[in-house]
Specification:
The protein has 277 residues and is an all-alpha fold. It folds into 2 domains: 40 residues, no CATH class; 208 residues, MetI-like (MetI-like fold, Orthogonal Bundle), CATH 1.10.3720.10. It contains 11 helices and no strands. The two termini are 44 Å apart.
């Protein structure tokens, strides 16, 4: 009897290896986060099959995934992804190259802000898609108009968040740096810019989402390739599974883009204390 009690106590006191415990915690977090997605996927698969929705308008998820595999095998989906990504990444990169330096100048130099703010206030309240006909008239229906639209839509969140990040730096931090004898250039490089980076990356992540959303709308009007073209072409020809493939592909690209930007942000802001989960 005593030996049985001792074995129970030893079993209860035993600890799992750290690796096993960490894997268990990771699986638990993953299950909690993906639970709602699994429920939506199951609902999507079941609803058309039991007649809750018309299968012609919302085919089962398995049928959509099967169509996606067919489009991958014949190369159509990859060609549309390549066309959209090339336009999106080009416009997004150019928007960063334009928006960040201009935002830093406006946020740091009052004279630049006073000179440019009236024009910015007019342009920032003009929707990007409202200017699509203007871009098509001026630049044609080729690649230039689509890339220009992406640049326009992505520049604003980057620009405004950069301005906000520079102006939001703690004045005491600036004052302390000046008392240490830092030159204006050193102050900007070692204090202002690092403190503004988290806010700048908020704008960059927003712009990353805009670069896909606005581009898809532009591709629905004047394009012969791209995910927007795939969606609108499939709708017109009543190829509904292909239409949903295009939509899911855009969602996947958006999530991947946001994840990569988050990883890049963590690398540039490694000095911040990571929040506890």
């Amino acid at each position: 009897m005593a030996s049985l009690e001792q074995s129970i106590e030893l079993h209860e006191g035993a600890q799992q290896p750290p690796f096993i415990a960490e894997v268990g915690r990771w699986l638990g977090r993953a299950a909690a986060r993906s639970g709602i997605l699994l429920f939506v996927a199951a609902l999507w698969e079941t609803a058309p099959r039991v007649g809750l929705v018309e299968a012609a308008f919302l085919p089962p998820l398995s049928e959509v995934l099967g169509t996606a595999w067919q489009l991958i095998q014949n190369g159509q989906l990859l060609s549309h992804i390549k066309a959209s990504l090339s336009r999106s990444l080009l416009g997004f990169s150019l928007a960063i190259l334009m928006g960040v330096p201009l935002g830093l100048a406006i946020g740091w130099y009052k004279g630049v802000a006073d000179a440019i703010n009236p024009l910015l206030e007019v342009l920032r309240n003009t929707a990007a898609l409202a200017l699509l006909p203007v871009f098509l008239l001026l630049l044609g229906i080729g690649e230039a108009s689509k890339v220009a639209l992406v640049i326009y839509s992505c520049t604003w969140p980057i620009l405004l968040n950069t301005i906000s990040g520079v102006r939001g730096v703690d004045p005491l931090l600036i004052k302390s740096a000046r008392t240490m004898g830092l030159s204006p250039l050193q102050l900007f490089r070692k204090v202002i810019l690092p403190a503004a980076i988290p806010t700048i990356f908020v704008g960059i992540r927003l712009a990353g989402a805009y670069s896909l959303l606005v581009l898809v709308a532009a591709e629905m009007i004047g394009a012969k390739a791209g995910l927007g073209y795939l969606i609108i072409y499939a709708q017109y020809n009543f190829q509904i599974p292909s239409m949903y493939v295009g939509i899911l592909t855009i969602t996947t690209l958006g999530l991947t883009f946001n994840y990569l930007l988050m990883r890049l942000e963590r690398r540039f802001t490694s000095w911040k204390v990571a929040p506890k989960e």
